[in-house]
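Now for a chain:

_____
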Amino acid sequence: MHGYGFDMAWGGWWMVLFWLGVIALIVWGVRMLTNGSPNSGRHSAETARDIIERRYARGEISREEFLDLLTDLESAEAYRKAKRSEHS
């Protein structure tokens, strides 16, 4: 004779695994849509200076452009700090 206890327990576990898989796929899909890729969150703290330095290192901009961009960036940072201190 076959009892329902043992067979039903396995059926319940398969249902739990199925729904966990569905939830995991939904979470993965949302992360892919919002971040663009699974690893993109690691580079979200990249600063403007990091980008300028990387472009210079790759040869995308000349030394003169690099220095001009750094000067502009430092001027903008100084301006933001001055504005913040005015509001404090």
Observations:
- The chain has a mean pLDDT of 82.
